[in-house]
Specification:
globular, Rossmann fold, seven-stranded parallel sheet
Length: 277
C-alpha cells in the first residue's frame, strides 16, 4: 500500500514548513516540500520520500504545474495539504502602501484558497486533510501589524468555513492557531519597509523596525505536535506554539483597557510616541 502523501508550502530552511516536512517524513509519509527557491530547502533533497518542487503560491501557472507533478507521482491523490507559506508586514496603518499590502494578502490569503481549489479533487479522492496555518495574530491587536494580522484573521475565517463546506466531501480541515514559534518568516519575506518621510511615527521609527524576541517554541517541537494532531484525526482550531494558552483562555476575559495597555507597552515603541497637543 503506497504511503500517505503531504504537500507543504513555504519549506525554506529554518521555518515552520521545513520542520513540518522533516516531521512528516519521519512518520513515513511521502512529502512534497515546496518553496519559490529550491536552493532554500536543498538540505532536504537527500532524504528518502521527500520530493522538492519549485512553487510560487501567487502564480496560477506554478500551482498548475505542481498539481500535475503531484498527480503523476500519487495517482491523482493527495492526503494532506499544508498551506504554510506566509509573509510578515510591519508598518503603521496610516503609512501602509496598499499595493504592497495586496501582495501580502496574495501570499497569506488568496494563495491558500487557490491551492485548496486546485488540489480539491485530489484531496476528495484521498478523503484528505487541509491544514491552514493561521496565527494567534488573527485574534489579537498588536500595533503596527494591522495588515499581517488582518490576513491571518481572514485565513482563520476561511479555514473554519471550509471545515463546514468540505465535511460532506469527506475532507477534514484544521485551522492552526500558531503562537510564537522560532521561524525565519522575517528573513524569507521581503525586507522591512522604512517609514515614509511624511509619517507621523518617525520619532519611533527605530523601535518599529527593531527585532523583538518573544517566548518561542522550538520549531522541531512545534512540528512534532502538529504532525501528531494531523495524524490523530483532529479538526477545527488547533492551538500550538508559545503563549497560546494565554491568548486562548486569558485574553478573551481580560478588560479591554488592560489588554490595550499591555499591547501599547510591549509593542514597538508606541508608548514612547509623543502625544499631539
Amino acid at each position: 500500500m503506497p504511503s500517505k502523501s503531504v504537500l507543504i508550502t513555504g519549506c525554506s530552511a529554518g521555518g515552520i514548513g521545513h520542520a513540518l516536512a522533516l516531521a512528516f517524513q519521519e512518520r513515513g509519509l511521502t512529502v512534497f516540500a515546496t518553496a519559490r527557491s529550491l536552493n532554500k530547502m536543498q538540505d532536504l533533497a537527500s532524504l528518502p520520500n521527500i520530493h522538492l518542487l519549485s512553487l510560487d503560491v501567487t502564480d496560477p501557472v506554478s500551482i498548475s504545474t505542481a498539481v500535475k507533478e503531484v498527480g503523476v507521482r500519487t495517482g491523482g491523490r493527495l492526503d494532506i495539504l499544508v498551506n504554510n507559506a506566509g509573509q510578515q508586514f510591519v508598518m503603521p496603518a496610516l503609512d501602509v502602501n496598499i499595493e504592497k499590502a495586496k501582495g501580502l494578502f496574495d501570499v497569506n490569503y488568496w494563495a491558500a484558497l487557490r491551492m485548496i481549489q486546485e488540489f480539491a479533487q485530489m484531496l476528495i479522492a484521498a478523503r484528505g486533510v487541509v491544514v491552514n496555518v493561521g496565527s494567534t495574530a488573527g485574534v489579537v491587536t498588536v500595533p503596527f501589524q494591522s495588515q499581517y494580522h488582518a490576513s491571518k484573521a481572514a485565513i482563520i475565517m476561511l479555514s473554519e468555513i471550509l471545515r463546514l463546506e468540505l465535511a460532506p466531501l469527506n475532507v477534514r480541515v484544521i485551522t492552526l492557531m500558531v503562537g510564537n514559534v522560532a521561524s525565519n518568516i522575517d528573513v524569507n519575506g521581503p525586507p522591512p519597509a522604512s517609514l515614509p518621510s511624511t509619517s507621523m511615527y518617525l520619532p519611533i521609527e527605530k523601535q518599529i523596525a527593531a527585532d523583538y524576541t518573544w517566548d518561542t517554541m522550538p520549531t522541531k517541537k512545534f512540528a512534532s505536535q502538529v504532525v501528531a494532531d494531523v495524524m490523530s484525526g483532529k479538526s477545527g482550531k488547533v492551538w500550538r506554539g508559545g503563549n497560546t494558552a494565554i491568548i486562548r483562555w486569558a485574553v478573551p476575559f481580560m478588560p479591554q483597557w488592560v489588554f490595550d495597555k499591555i499591547m501599547i507597552s510591549i509593542s514597538r515603541g508606541l508608548d514612547k510616541m509623543p502625544m499631539i497637543a
